[in-house]
Amino acid sequence: MGILQLSLNTMLLPINTPQTACPIAQAVSFLLTQTGSRSLVLAFSGGMDSTVLLHELAKQKANLIAVHIHHGLQAIADDWLVHCQAQAQARGIPFVGIHVQVADTKRRGLEDRAREARYAALWQQVALDGVLLTAHHQRDQAETFLLRALRGAGVAGLGGIKSWQNRDVGRSLVRPLLSVSYRQMQDYANKEGLLWIEDPTNNDGFALRNRVRHEVLPMMTSLAQQSESQLAMAAQHSQEASVLLQLVGQEDWQKCRLNDFSWDVFTWRAMPWLRAKNALMTVWQCQAGVSLSVAQWQQVKMQFYDVGRDDAHPRFCYQGWCLLIDGDKGYFLSDKMLSVPEEIVAWEVNDKKQMTWGEWSVLTVVDLSHQSITVVARKGGEKIQTVLGNKTLKKWLQSQPIPVWQKIYWPVIYDTKTGNLLGWANMPATWLAADVSCAVSLSFLGHQAQ
To answer: Which of 53, 91, 275, 321 could pair with 58 as two cysteines, CB 3.0-4.6 Å apart?
Structure first.
Protein backbone atom coordinates (compact mmCIF):
# COMPACT_ATOMS: atom_id res chain seq x y z
CA MET A 1 0.00 0.00 0.00
CA GLY A 2 1.55 3.31 -1.02
CA ILE A 3 2.42 5.74 1.73
CA LEU A 4 0.42 8.95 1.59
CA GLN A 5 2.35 12.06 0.74
CA LEU A 6 1.07 14.64 3.22
CA SER A 7 1.78 18.33 3.50
CA LEU A 8 0.17 21.32 5.14
CA ASN A 9 -0.70 24.49 3.30
CA THR A 10 2.73 25.76 2.37
CA MET A 11 1.21 28.73 0.55
CA LEU A 12 -1.17 29.80 3.31
CA LEU A 13 -0.17 33.00 5.08
CA PRO A 14 -1.30 33.33 8.73
CA ILE A 15 -4.88 34.56 8.72
CA ASN A 16 -4.62 37.12 11.51
CA THR A 17 -1.00 38.22 11.05
CA PRO A 18 -0.71 42.02 10.95
CA GLN A 19 0.46 43.08 7.52
CA THR A 20 2.23 46.33 6.88
CA ALA A 21 2.42 45.82 3.13
CA CYS A 22 -0.43 45.14 0.71
CA PRO A 23 -1.62 41.58 1.54
CA ILE A 24 -2.20 40.79 -2.13
CA ALA A 25 1.27 41.98 -3.11
CA GLN A 26 2.69 39.91 -0.23
CA ALA A 27 0.81 36.80 -1.30
CA VAL A 28 1.91 37.08 -4.93
CA SER A 29 5.52 37.77 -3.94
CA PHE A 30 5.47 34.67 -1.74
CA LEU A 31 3.94 32.66 -4.59
CA LEU A 32 6.69 33.64 -7.01
CA THR A 33 9.33 32.75 -4.42
CA GLN A 34 7.78 29.30 -3.99
CA THR A 35 7.23 28.53 -7.68
CA GLY A 36 10.58 29.81 -8.96
CA SER A 37 10.98 29.23 -12.70
CA ARG A 38 7.91 27.00 -13.05
CA SER A 39 5.43 28.13 -15.71
CA LEU A 40 2.19 29.67 -14.44
CA VAL A 41 -1.33 29.44 -15.88
CA LEU A 42 -4.00 31.73 -14.43
CA ALA A 43 -7.66 30.70 -14.58
CA PHE A 44 -9.00 34.11 -15.63
CA SER A 45 -12.78 34.42 -15.46
CA GLY A 46 -12.71 38.19 -15.64
CA GLY A 47 -14.40 38.59 -12.27
CA MET A 48 -13.01 40.80 -9.55
CA ASP A 49 -10.99 38.01 -7.88
CA SER A 50 -9.08 36.81 -10.93
CA THR A 51 -8.69 40.39 -12.22
CA VAL A 52 -6.96 41.36 -8.95
CA LEU A 53 -4.63 38.38 -9.19
CA LEU A 54 -3.87 39.03 -12.88
CA HIS A 55 -3.09 42.68 -12.15
CA GLU A 56 -0.69 41.94 -9.29
CA LEU A 57 1.03 39.12 -11.18
CA ALA A 58 1.61 41.52 -14.06
CA LYS A 59 2.94 44.21 -11.69
CA GLN A 60 5.46 41.72 -10.32
CA LYS A 61 6.38 40.62 -13.88
CA ALA A 62 5.39 37.00 -13.43
CA ASN A 63 5.90 34.63 -16.36
CA LEU A 64 2.38 33.40 -17.03
CA ILE A 65 -0.48 33.01 -19.47
CA ALA A 66 -4.11 33.87 -18.73
CA VAL A 67 -6.73 31.32 -19.81
CA HIS A 68 -10.44 32.14 -20.07
CA ILE A 69 -12.99 29.35 -20.37
CA HIS A 70 -16.07 30.17 -22.46
CA HIS A 71 -18.87 27.89 -21.21
CA GLY A 72 -21.50 29.31 -23.54
CA LEU A 73 -24.05 29.35 -20.72
CA GLN A 74 -24.63 33.12 -20.67
CA ALA A 75 -25.96 35.30 -23.47
CA ILE A 76 -23.08 37.74 -22.94
CA ALA A 77 -20.36 35.07 -22.74
CA ASP A 78 -18.82 36.30 -26.01
CA ASP A 79 -18.47 39.79 -24.52
CA TRP A 80 -16.74 38.29 -21.47
CA LEU A 81 -14.20 36.60 -23.70
CA VAL A 82 -13.47 39.89 -25.48
CA HIS A 83 -13.14 41.71 -22.15
CA CYS A 84 -10.73 39.13 -20.70
CA GLN A 85 -8.54 39.17 -23.78
CA ALA A 86 -8.35 42.97 -23.66
CA GLN A 87 -7.47 42.97 -19.95
CA ALA A 88 -4.66 40.46 -20.44
CA GLN A 89 -3.25 42.20 -23.51
CA ALA A 90 -3.30 45.59 -21.75
CA ARG A 91 -0.91 44.09 -19.19
CA GLY A 92 1.26 42.27 -21.71
CA ILE A 93 0.06 38.84 -20.56
CA PRO A 94 -0.36 36.10 -23.21
CA PHE A 95 -4.02 35.07 -23.45
CA VAL A 96 -5.84 31.88 -24.45
CA GLY A 97 -9.63 31.65 -24.83
CA ILE A 98 -11.18 28.17 -24.88
CA HIS A 99 -14.75 27.17 -25.71
CA VAL A 100 -16.10 24.16 -23.80
CA GLN A 101 -19.32 22.19 -24.04
CA VAL A 102 -21.28 21.46 -20.88
CA ALA A 103 -23.09 18.17 -21.38
CA ASP A 104 -26.47 19.02 -19.82
CA THR A 105 -27.88 22.51 -19.38
CA LYS A 106 -30.44 21.62 -16.70
CA ARG A 107 -30.03 24.01 -13.77
CA ARG A 108 -29.52 21.40 -11.05
CA GLY A 109 -25.95 20.14 -11.14
CA LEU A 110 -24.98 22.62 -13.83
CA GLU A 111 -22.32 24.28 -11.65
CA ASP A 112 -20.56 20.96 -11.04
CA ARG A 113 -20.59 20.01 -14.74
CA ALA A 114 -19.31 23.44 -15.75
CA ARG A 115 -16.51 23.20 -13.16
CA GLU A 116 -15.45 19.78 -14.45
CA ALA A 117 -15.36 21.03 -18.04
CA ARG A 118 -13.49 24.17 -17.00
CA TYR A 119 -10.75 22.40 -15.08
CA ALA A 120 -10.32 19.76 -17.78
CA ALA A 121 -9.67 22.54 -20.30
CA LEU A 122 -7.42 24.48 -17.93
CA TRP A 123 -5.17 21.51 -17.15
CA GLN A 124 -4.59 21.02 -20.87
CA GLN A 125 -2.79 24.38 -20.85
CA VAL A 126 -0.51 23.53 -17.90
CA ALA A 127 2.99 22.21 -18.63
CA LEU A 128 4.20 18.97 -17.05
CA ASP A 129 5.90 20.86 -14.22
CA GLY A 130 3.64 23.89 -14.36
CA VAL A 131 1.30 25.58 -11.88
CA LEU A 132 -2.39 26.35 -12.29
CA LEU A 133 -3.48 29.44 -10.33
CA THR A 134 -6.97 30.30 -9.16
CA ALA A 135 -8.05 33.42 -7.27
CA HIS A 136 -10.00 31.83 -4.40
CA HIS A 137 -9.88 34.00 -1.28
CA GLN A 138 -10.84 33.90 2.39
CA ARG A 139 -14.58 34.34 1.85
CA ASP A 140 -14.59 31.40 -0.56
CA GLN A 141 -12.99 29.33 2.19
CA ALA A 142 -15.56 30.46 4.76
CA GLU A 143 -18.43 29.63 2.39
CA THR A 144 -17.00 26.21 1.64
CA PHE A 145 -16.61 25.44 5.35
CA LEU A 146 -20.25 26.33 6.02
CA LEU A 147 -21.55 24.41 3.01
CA ARG A 148 -19.68 21.26 3.99
CA ALA A 149 -20.75 21.61 7.62
CA LEU A 150 -24.37 21.72 6.41
CA ARG A 151 -23.73 18.45 4.56
CA GLY A 152 -22.30 16.78 7.64
CA ALA A 153 -18.72 16.59 6.38
CA GLY A 154 -15.94 15.08 8.46
CA VAL A 155 -12.63 16.68 9.37
CA ALA A 156 -11.18 16.24 5.88
CA GLY A 157 -14.22 17.84 4.24
CA LEU A 158 -14.31 20.74 6.70
CA GLY A 159 -10.72 21.48 5.67
CA GLY A 160 -12.29 23.06 2.61
CA ILE A 161 -10.06 24.55 -0.06
CA LYS A 162 -6.33 23.82 0.01
CA SER A 163 -3.89 26.54 -0.92
CA TRP A 164 -1.45 24.11 -2.56
CA GLN A 165 -2.17 20.74 -4.11
CA ASN A 166 0.39 18.65 -5.96
CA ARG A 167 -1.13 16.87 -8.92
CA ASP A 168 0.01 14.37 -11.51
CA VAL A 169 3.29 14.62 -13.48
CA GLY A 170 4.72 17.31 -11.22
CA ARG A 171 1.98 19.88 -11.73
CA SER A 172 0.41 21.90 -8.90
CA LEU A 173 -2.85 23.72 -8.21
CA VAL A 174 -2.18 26.85 -6.16
CA ARG A 175 -4.53 29.43 -4.63
CA PRO A 176 -2.20 32.20 -3.45
CA LEU A 177 -4.92 34.57 -2.17
CA LEU A 178 -6.66 32.14 0.17
CA SER A 179 -5.62 34.12 3.27
CA VAL A 180 -6.78 37.45 1.77
CA SER A 181 -10.19 38.75 2.84
CA TYR A 182 -12.94 39.78 0.42
CA ARG A 183 -12.79 43.34 1.75
CA GLN A 184 -9.05 43.48 1.01
CA MET A 185 -9.76 42.26 -2.53
CA GLN A 186 -12.38 45.00 -3.00
CA ASP A 187 -10.11 47.72 -1.63
CA TYR A 188 -7.29 46.65 -3.95
CA ALA A 189 -9.56 46.55 -7.01
CA ASN A 190 -11.00 50.01 -6.30
CA LYS A 191 -7.60 51.54 -5.49
CA GLU A 192 -6.10 50.22 -8.75
CA GLY A 193 -9.15 51.27 -10.79
CA LEU A 194 -9.71 47.76 -12.12
CA LEU A 195 -12.56 46.78 -14.43
CA TRP A 196 -14.19 43.39 -14.02
CA ILE A 197 -17.18 41.28 -14.98
CA GLU A 198 -20.17 40.83 -12.68
CA ASP A 199 -21.66 37.39 -13.30
CA PRO A 200 -25.45 37.63 -12.78
CA THR A 201 -25.60 34.00 -11.60
CA ASN A 202 -23.68 35.06 -8.47
CA ASN A 203 -26.96 36.60 -7.27
CA ASP A 204 -29.08 33.59 -8.22
CA GLY A 205 -31.00 32.56 -5.11
CA PHE A 206 -31.28 28.99 -6.43
CA ALA A 207 -27.65 28.17 -5.65
CA LEU A 208 -27.00 27.27 -2.01
CA ARG A 209 -23.55 28.89 -2.09
CA ASN A 210 -25.12 32.20 -3.14
CA ARG A 211 -27.60 32.04 -0.26
CA VAL A 212 -24.75 31.37 2.16
CA ARG A 213 -22.85 34.32 0.68
CA HIS A 214 -25.70 36.83 0.66
CA GLU A 215 -27.77 35.70 3.65
CA VAL A 216 -25.82 33.54 6.09
CA LEU A 217 -22.40 35.20 6.09
CA PRO A 218 -23.75 38.78 6.50
CA MET A 219 -25.87 37.59 9.45
CA MET A 220 -22.83 35.90 11.02
CA THR A 221 -20.73 39.03 10.46
CA SER A 222 -23.35 41.08 12.28
CA LEU A 223 -22.89 38.75 15.25
CA ALA A 224 -19.09 38.48 15.04
CA GLN A 225 -17.16 40.99 12.95
CA GLN A 226 -14.33 38.54 12.19
CA SER A 227 -16.60 35.61 11.24
CA GLU A 228 -15.12 35.24 7.74
CA SER A 229 -11.55 34.94 9.00
CA GLN A 230 -12.60 32.78 11.96
CA LEU A 231 -14.40 30.31 9.67
CA ALA A 232 -11.35 30.23 7.41
CA MET A 233 -9.21 29.57 10.48
CA ALA A 234 -11.52 26.71 11.48
CA ALA A 235 -11.00 25.24 8.01
CA GLN A 236 -7.23 25.51 8.47
CA HIS A 237 -7.49 23.74 11.84
CA SER A 238 -9.53 21.00 10.16
CA GLN A 239 -6.88 20.56 7.49
CA GLU A 240 -4.20 20.16 10.15
CA ALA A 241 -6.37 17.68 12.09
CA SER A 242 -6.97 15.71 8.90
CA VAL A 243 -3.24 15.47 8.21
CA LEU A 244 -2.63 14.34 11.79
CA LEU A 245 -5.34 11.66 11.52
CA GLN A 246 -3.77 10.36 8.32
CA LEU A 247 -0.32 10.21 9.92
CA VAL A 248 -1.74 8.28 12.89
CA GLY A 249 -3.66 6.08 10.47
CA GLN A 250 -0.47 5.26 8.59
CA GLU A 251 1.33 4.32 11.79
CA ASP A 252 -1.54 2.15 13.01
CA TRP A 253 -1.85 0.48 9.61
CA GLN A 254 1.82 -0.45 9.67
CA LYS A 255 1.27 -2.23 13.00
CA CYS A 256 -1.25 -4.63 11.48
CA ARG A 257 -0.19 -4.62 7.81
CA LEU A 258 1.03 -7.95 6.42
CA ASN A 259 1.63 -6.87 2.81
CA ASP A 260 0.18 -4.55 0.20
CA PHE A 261 -3.23 -6.20 0.25
CA SER A 262 -3.74 -7.83 3.65
CA TRP A 263 -3.60 -7.16 7.38
CA ASP A 264 -3.63 -9.01 10.69
CA VAL A 265 -7.20 -8.96 11.96
CA PHE A 266 -6.38 -9.65 15.62
CA THR A 267 -3.90 -6.76 15.82
CA TRP A 268 -6.41 -4.50 14.06
CA ARG A 269 -9.28 -5.46 16.36
CA ALA A 270 -7.09 -4.91 19.43
CA MET A 271 -7.21 -1.17 18.65
CA PRO A 272 -10.13 0.97 19.83
CA TRP A 273 -12.72 1.15 17.05
CA LEU A 274 -12.00 4.79 16.20
CA ARG A 275 -8.31 4.03 15.60
CA ALA A 276 -9.08 0.80 13.75
CA LYS A 277 -11.55 2.71 11.58
CA ASN A 278 -9.07 5.53 10.99
CA ALA A 279 -6.32 3.09 9.92
CA LEU A 280 -8.63 1.37 7.46
CA MET A 281 -10.03 4.71 6.28
CA THR A 282 -6.50 5.96 5.53
CA VAL A 283 -5.81 2.94 3.34
CA TRP A 284 -9.21 3.08 1.63
CA GLN A 285 -8.85 6.76 0.74
CA CYS A 286 -5.26 6.27 -0.46
CA GLN A 287 -6.08 3.32 -2.70
CA ALA A 288 -9.68 3.92 -3.76
CA GLY A 289 -9.72 7.73 -3.57
CA VAL A 290 -13.27 7.79 -2.17
CA SER A 291 -14.83 8.14 1.26
CA LEU A 292 -17.44 6.00 2.98
CA SER A 293 -20.53 7.39 4.68
CA VAL A 294 -21.26 7.11 8.40
CA ALA A 295 -23.77 4.34 7.65
CA GLN A 296 -21.24 2.43 5.56
CA TRP A 297 -18.61 2.60 8.32
CA GLN A 298 -21.20 1.32 10.77
CA GLN A 299 -21.77 -1.60 8.42
CA VAL A 300 -18.02 -2.28 8.31
CA LYS A 301 -17.87 -2.14 12.11
CA MET A 302 -20.65 -4.71 12.51
CA GLN A 303 -19.33 -7.05 9.80
CA PHE A 304 -15.58 -6.81 10.39
CA TYR A 305 -14.83 -5.41 13.84
CA ASP A 306 -17.64 -6.66 16.09
CA VAL A 307 -17.99 -10.12 14.51
CA GLY A 308 -17.32 -12.92 17.01
CA ARG A 309 -17.14 -15.94 14.71
CA ASP A 310 -13.77 -17.06 13.35
CA ASP A 311 -15.48 -18.88 10.46
CA ALA A 312 -17.31 -15.76 9.23
CA HIS A 313 -16.26 -14.49 5.81
CA PRO A 314 -17.71 -10.97 5.52
CA ARG A 315 -17.36 -8.95 2.35
CA PHE A 316 -17.99 -5.23 1.83
CA CYS A 317 -17.59 -3.69 -1.64
CA TYR A 318 -17.83 -0.08 -2.81
CA GLN A 319 -16.56 1.84 -5.82
CA GLY A 320 -14.46 -1.00 -7.23
CA TRP A 321 -12.82 -2.09 -3.93
CA CYS A 322 -13.67 -4.78 -1.41
CA LEU A 323 -12.90 -5.63 2.20
CA LEU A 324 -12.83 -9.32 3.11
CA ILE A 325 -11.89 -11.38 6.16
CA ASP A 326 -10.77 -15.00 6.13
CA GLY A 327 -9.61 -16.43 9.45
CA ASP A 328 -7.02 -14.15 11.01
CA LYS A 329 -6.40 -12.10 7.86
CA GLY A 330 -8.22 -9.18 6.36
CA TYR A 331 -7.94 -8.25 2.69
CA PHE A 332 -8.33 -4.98 0.80
CA LEU A 333 -8.72 -5.90 -2.87
CA SER A 334 -9.83 -4.36 -6.13
CA ASP A 335 -12.74 -5.84 -8.08
CA LYS A 336 -10.24 -6.94 -10.72
CA MET A 337 -8.41 -9.12 -8.23
CA LEU A 338 -11.72 -10.76 -7.29
CA SER A 339 -12.90 -11.37 -10.84
CA VAL A 340 -12.99 -14.97 -12.03
CA PRO A 341 -10.39 -15.53 -14.78
CA GLU A 342 -12.40 -16.12 -17.93
CA GLU A 343 -9.48 -17.04 -20.13
CA ILE A 344 -8.63 -20.59 -21.05
CA VAL A 345 -4.87 -21.12 -20.94
CA ALA A 346 -3.72 -23.53 -23.64
CA TRP A 347 -0.20 -24.63 -22.74
CA GLU A 348 2.13 -26.40 -25.14
CA VAL A 349 5.14 -28.34 -23.92
CA ASN A 350 7.54 -25.84 -25.52
CA ASP A 351 5.79 -22.72 -24.18
CA LYS A 352 7.36 -20.45 -21.58
CA LYS A 353 7.24 -21.79 -18.06
CA GLN A 354 5.16 -18.96 -16.55
CA MET A 355 1.83 -17.39 -17.45
CA THR A 356 -0.43 -14.92 -15.63
CA TRP A 357 -3.66 -16.14 -14.12
CA GLY A 358 -6.29 -13.42 -13.82
CA GLU A 359 -5.25 -10.20 -12.12
CA TRP A 360 -3.67 -11.69 -9.03
CA SER A 361 -1.46 -14.69 -9.70
CA VAL A 362 1.10 -16.49 -11.82
CA LEU A 363 1.03 -20.10 -13.03
CA THR A 364 4.35 -21.91 -13.30
CA VAL A 365 4.94 -25.27 -15.00
CA VAL A 366 6.91 -27.52 -12.67
CA ASP A 367 6.74 -30.64 -14.82
CA LEU A 368 4.85 -31.35 -18.01
CA SER A 369 4.87 -34.80 -19.59
CA HIS A 370 1.76 -34.16 -21.69
CA GLN A 371 2.22 -32.37 -25.00
CA SER A 372 -0.43 -29.79 -24.18
CA ILE A 373 -2.71 -28.86 -21.30
CA THR A 374 -5.65 -26.52 -20.79
CA VAL A 375 -6.10 -24.50 -17.60
CA VAL A 376 -9.51 -23.12 -16.58
CA ALA A 377 -11.10 -21.84 -13.36
CA ARG A 378 -12.79 -24.53 -11.24
CA LYS A 379 -16.50 -25.04 -11.73
CA GLY A 380 -17.16 -27.47 -8.87
CA GLY A 381 -17.23 -31.25 -8.53
CA GLU A 382 -13.69 -31.86 -9.82
CA LYS A 383 -12.18 -35.16 -8.68
CA ILE A 384 -9.26 -37.32 -9.82
CA GLN A 385 -8.05 -40.90 -9.39
CA THR A 386 -4.66 -40.93 -7.66
CA VAL A 387 -2.35 -43.58 -6.21
CA LEU A 388 -4.05 -42.80 -2.89
CA GLY A 389 -7.54 -43.25 -4.29
CA ASN A 390 -10.13 -40.69 -5.39
CA LYS A 391 -9.36 -37.11 -4.43
CA THR A 392 -11.66 -34.12 -4.83
CA LEU A 393 -10.57 -30.53 -5.35
CA LYS A 394 -13.15 -29.31 -2.81
CA LYS A 395 -11.77 -31.40 0.06
CA TRP A 396 -8.18 -30.63 -0.87
CA LEU A 397 -8.91 -26.90 -0.82
CA GLN A 398 -10.60 -27.25 2.58
CA SER A 399 -7.37 -28.72 3.96
CA GLN A 400 -5.18 -25.89 2.63
CA PRO A 401 -4.38 -22.51 4.23
CA ILE A 402 -5.66 -20.71 1.16
CA PRO A 403 -7.97 -17.68 1.50
CA VAL A 404 -11.59 -18.41 0.64
CA TRP A 405 -11.67 -15.78 -2.09
CA GLN A 406 -8.77 -17.53 -3.89
CA LYS A 407 -10.33 -20.97 -3.61
CA ILE A 408 -13.34 -19.87 -5.63
CA TYR A 409 -11.18 -19.27 -8.71
CA TRP A 410 -8.68 -22.10 -8.30
CA PRO A 411 -7.22 -23.27 -11.66
CA VAL A 412 -7.74 -26.87 -12.81
CA ILE A 413 -5.75 -28.69 -15.49
CA TYR A 414 -7.03 -30.81 -18.35
CA ASP A 415 -5.39 -32.78 -21.17
CA THR A 416 -6.11 -30.64 -24.22
CA LYS A 417 -6.48 -33.63 -26.57
CA THR A 418 -8.56 -35.99 -24.43
CA GLY A 419 -10.28 -33.52 -22.11
CA ASN A 420 -9.36 -35.65 -19.09
CA LEU A 421 -8.81 -33.93 -15.76
CA LEU A 422 -5.12 -34.10 -14.86
CA GLY A 423 -5.26 -32.23 -11.56
CA TRP A 424 -5.11 -28.70 -10.26
CA ALA A 425 -2.54 -26.10 -9.30
CA ASN A 426 -0.32 -27.00 -6.32
CA MET A 427 -1.70 -30.52 -6.13
CA PRO A 428 0.87 -32.85 -4.45
CA ALA A 429 3.03 -34.58 -7.06
CA THR A 430 3.09 -37.72 -4.87
CA TRP A 431 -0.56 -38.36 -5.73
CA LEU A 432 0.31 -39.20 -9.35
CA ALA A 433 1.76 -42.41 -10.71
CA ALA A 434 5.44 -42.33 -11.69
CA ASP A 435 4.64 -42.33 -15.42
CA VAL A 436 2.04 -39.54 -15.14
CA SER A 437 3.61 -36.15 -14.59
CA CYS A 438 1.82 -32.84 -14.85
CA ALA A 439 2.49 -30.32 -12.11
CA VAL A 440 1.59 -26.64 -12.16
CA SER A 441 2.12 -24.27 -9.22
CA LEU A 442 0.15 -21.14 -8.47
CA SER A 443 1.81 -18.08 -6.95
CA PHE A 444 -0.28 -15.20 -5.58
CA LEU A 445 1.29 -11.79 -6.21
CA GLY A 446 4.76 -13.24 -5.91
CA HIS A 447 3.98 -15.40 -2.86
CA GLN A 448 3.12 -19.10 -2.77
CA ALA A 449 -0.60 -19.38 -2.12
CA GLN A 450 -0.25 -22.77 -0.42
So the answer is: 91
